[in-house]
């Protein structure tokens, strides 16, 4: 249900307000609808009107993958969702079978797929989530309306202050009362300021910024180099080779090509320069593909890619009735493709925390459960980014206890491209579908510890090794 905002909510029913009607906010709203009489999702944009180019989600124009952990979490919150996504044409890419992938100085073997990514556009995924969530009769969407502050005090949040976007910044904000307010406003969240505004403390922010920049362009694969035995290209940066590329199909049969590089050497947004940048990758396969394909859009850039974790779990004067989820809680370097998956896993964690019969779902406890469900993704992206040259931040230290694990993980990475057993475990963890302990299972550990590194092929594998091809 979509409506215009009226005055404050007057009734005594339990009311939750979710600020931000994107993927994390919508999924949180669906979970809360089982616990509150009314849930209102307040969104600054009018997403139904301008799907892919709305200003609140500028990342929509860049390549997005939905990892396997996100697929099962979405399915848990919205049963049948993955079938709907497939029916809407979102391509499904088997890893490592369907991807021509360069990593750590060599090409991955294209053995049978052990995990799948969905590679349709983020805008389509968000639209389908919105449709499903807003079908719920207890959920009301208020669009074109911005939350500008909280109502309440340092002990308890009692609502939000909001203002219609067309009313102008000087208009007096109105109050929307709520028993629970959830911040799902994404990486640009102003919750710290809102909390200060009611006399509470903002969360400590851990920041790890590799300075990675994205640039993306839409292409038509006029020569059909992709689409049969291989569905995409992936060149993964590392501390010695910091340029990256990914080319993936989207639902309308075209491809998104994204190039990435670090601060000071960002991929250009001029079309010719963008393609010339691809020539500097360790192999010309992506450059050759671009030159043989037809560009269908200008190049768009994105630079705000720092990992930021807001530590609401640490002591501080914070009110009951306020939670953060999705990117507003924990933002990741997008190169690891985790944000939508974690938004869905946060929603599952919210549901579990609210229905746990052993514990009262106090604000701090629920918030900690959400943070816990972001932890694996944080460990992967922050852990890898700490190794990048020029990384900046206030959370760069590695505890001494974690150093042996770092040594072991380096051995995993060196072998994942050519050893199918290690590769399977590695992909399950990177897909946020298995805990890190999967890498220490006896069969995997034996190979990690006792087998020599076999170098990857020095030429891109254009055919799948899996029985029956792809
Ligand atoms: C370049 C890039 C590439 C990415 N690639 C991937 C990928 O491959 N895979 C993946 O899983 N994730 C990826 N992500 C992350 C992914 O886009 C997000 O994690 C995902 O959109 C979920 O975010 P969210 O719902 O928490 O916030 P967002 O999607 O950022 O949404 C926040 C919403 O809040 C609204 N809002 C903001 N302020 C207010 C306010 N004051 N009042 C009301 N509404 C407000 C905004 O309009 C917006 O709709 C990528 C991100 C970037 C930047």
Automatic annotation (TrEMBL):
What InterPro entries does its record include?
A: FAD-bd, FAD/NAD-bd_sf
Q: Which keywords label this protein?
A: Monooxygenase, Oxidoreductase
Keyword Thylakoid part of the UniProt annotation: no
Instruction: Kindly give the Pfam families that the UniProt entry links to this protein.
Output: FAD_binding_3
Which GO terms of the molecular function aspect are on file? Answer: FAD binding; monooxygenase activity
The FAD-binding domain covers: 16-357
Any idea what this protein is called? Monooxygenase
């Amino acid at each position: 249900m979509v409506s215009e905002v009226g005055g404050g909510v007057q009734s005594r029913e339990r009311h939750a307000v979710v600020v931000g009607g994107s993927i994390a906010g919508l999924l949180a709203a669906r979970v809360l609808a089982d616990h509150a009489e009314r849930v209102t999702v307040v969104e600054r944009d009018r997403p139904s009107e301008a799907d892919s180019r709305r200003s609140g989600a500028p990342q929509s124009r860049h390549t997005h993958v939905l990892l396997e952990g996100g697929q099962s979490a979405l399915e848990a919150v919205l049963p049948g969702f993955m079938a709907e996504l497939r029916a809407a044409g979102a391509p499904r890419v088997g890893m490592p079978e369907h991807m021509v992938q360069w990593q750590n100085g060599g090409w991955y073997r294209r053995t049978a797929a052990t995990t799948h990514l969905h590679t349709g556009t983020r805008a389509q995924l968000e639209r389908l989530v919105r449709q499903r969530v807003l079908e719920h009769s207890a959920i009301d969407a208020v669009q074109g309306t911005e939350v500008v502050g909280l109502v309440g005090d340092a002990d308890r949040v009692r609502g939000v202050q909001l203002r219609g976007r067309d009313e102008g910044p000087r208009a007096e904000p109105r109050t929307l009362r709520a028993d629970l307010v959830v911040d799902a406003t994404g990486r640009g969240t102003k919750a710290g300021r809102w909390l200060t505004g009611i006399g509470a403390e903002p969360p400590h922010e851990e920041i790890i910024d590799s300075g990675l920049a994205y640039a993306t362009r839409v292409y038509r694969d006029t020569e059909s180099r992709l689409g049969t035995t291989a569905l995409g290209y992936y060149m993964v940066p590392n501390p010695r080779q910091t340029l990256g590329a990914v080319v993936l199909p989207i639902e309308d049969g075209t491809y998104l090509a994204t190039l990435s590089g670090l601060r000071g050497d960002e991929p250009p947004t001029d079309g010719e320069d963008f393609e010339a940048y691809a020539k500097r990758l360790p192999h010309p396969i992506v450059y050759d593909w671009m030159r043989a394909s037809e560009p269908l859009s200008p190049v768009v850039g994105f630079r705000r890619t720092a990992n930021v974790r807001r530590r609401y779990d640490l002591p501080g004067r914070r009110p009951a009735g306020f939670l953060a989820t999705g990117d507003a809680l924990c933002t990741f370097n997008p190169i690891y493709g985790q944000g939508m998956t974690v938004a869905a896993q946060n929603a599952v964690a919210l549901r579990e925390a609210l229905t746990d019969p052993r514990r009262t779902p106090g604000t701090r406890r629920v918030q900690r459960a959400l943070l816990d469900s972001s932890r694996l993704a944080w460990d992967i992206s922050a852990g890898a980014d700490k190794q990048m040259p020029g990384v900046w931040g206030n959370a760069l230290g590695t505890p001494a206890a974690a150093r042996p694990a770092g040594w072991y993980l380096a051995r995993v990475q060196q072998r994942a491209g050519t050893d199918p057993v290690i590769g399977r475990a590695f992909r399950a963890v990177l897909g946020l579908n298995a805990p890190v302990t999967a890498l220490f299972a006896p069969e995997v550990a034996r190979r990690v510890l006792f087998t020599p590194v076999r170098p990857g092929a020095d030429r891109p594998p254009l055919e799948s090794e899996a029985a029956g091809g792809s």
